[in-house]
Every structure is written in C-alpha cells, then in structure tokens.
Design a protein that fits this description.
Length: about 130
C-alpha cells in the first residue's frame, strides 16, 4: 500500500477509535468520573442531556472518519477540520474546565498529550498527501 495512503488510514482509524472511546465515556457518568478523577460525582439531568448531545456528535465524527477512510485522498480535508475546530475546540473547553477547578491540570495532561499526538499525526498525514491526485 502506498505510504501516503497508509498514513491517512492510520490517522482516520486512530481518530475513529479515540472518538468511539470518548463517546463511551460521555455516555457513562461512572466511566467519566473514574477517568477524570472526580470523586463523589453526581451529575444532574443537565449533564446527561449535554453529554447525550456531545456523544451523538462524537459518534457522528467516528463515522465521518471511517467514511473518509473509504476514499483517503479525496476526503483528506476531514483531517484538517478534525484539528480545527474539533480538537482545538475540545482543548479550549478543557482549559476552561481546569480554570474552573472542575478537573485538575494533572488529570488533563494525558488527554492533552493524546490530542497533541493527534494534531501531529493528522497534520503530517494531511500535508504528506497534498498534491497527490487519484
């Protein structure tokens, strides 16, 4: 398989797996609490509603990445819009959560490292494939 296609597919599939895991976390308050070191977490109806909306979008993005994997070069733009506004939007939201003292920066650090990895992976794959015609 062409190395450029391989990098695109690794990006799409890695993103899809991480998004699917995030959706599971969003749909389960217990998993969310454990993975974010939140003791005595008792979410209200507003949390369930907001996370249900977010999980639906996360599942949709999982499907979008798998759809992009079907035609890697033609749909490489999905990687760009996954970086901006999706990943950067999540980072801004997480910074706000840390600043409000809802979640500690130490708890967010592994997530930020994962997000940095995704930005680098997606950016590399996108720019590596530019100019390639199919």
């Amino acid at each position: 398989m062409d190395k450029k296609i391989r990098w695109l597919r690794v990006s799409y599939r890695t993103g899809a797996i991480i998004d699917a895991l995030a959706a599971v976390q969003m749909l389960s308050p217990n998993i969310f609490a454990v993975t974010n070191n939140l003791n005595n977490f008792q979410p209200a109806a507003e949390y369930h509603y907001a996370m249900g909306m977010g999980a639906s979008l996360m599942i949709g993005w999982t499907v979008l990445l798998l759809w992009a994997d079907r035609k890697p070069f033609e749909r490489k733009g999905v990687l760009g819009i996954t970086i901006i506004p999706v990943i950067f939007g999540l980072i801004l939201n997480e910074i706000a959560a840390v600043q409000s003292q809802f979640i500690s920066a130490g708890t967010m650090l592994p997530i930020w490292i994962c997000q940095a990895f995704l930005v680098l992976l997606f950016g590399y794959s996108y720019f590596n494939a530019r100019g390639k015609s199919v």
